[in-house]
Amino acid sequence: MVKAWLDEKTREKIQIVGGSYKKKLLIYVDEDQLVDFMGGKNTATLEDDFGPWNDFEIVDGTEKTDKVGIRRKGETEICFSPDDLLKLPNYMTSTSAVNPAELADDDGEEFKQEEEERKE
Q1: What pLDDT is recorded for position 71?
Q2: What are the pLDDT digits (tens) for 54-76?
Q3: CA quadruple 59, 64, 67, 68: dihedral sign
Q4: Where are the domains of the chain?
Q5: Bridge partners of residue 72, in order along the sequence
């Protein structure tokens, strides 16, 4: 009944699997991440805030030795930096990366000065 109202591309994304959903679901979700009432091993509640996002921390560069970015908790190596962010495709601009200095009104002098101060 709803099928007629859905776009063809949307219909292609929908799968009705009935009572045998667990096998199909485990293709996309690890069993230890799947909640127990859906057949998984995860007994955490929503209030427990269980998830992979808790494995990482943001390094803001407040310490002189810090490199700004995201790293796994307990590790020193940055796994995602602002430079990595600039390499991602940016569909809002005509180029795939934007140099922050190009965004400043004063040819990036303020940005360059902040970078120099951070390196000291």
Answers
A1: 92
A2: 889 999 888 888 889 999 999 98
A3: positive
A4: 15-48, 51-81, 89-120
A5: 56
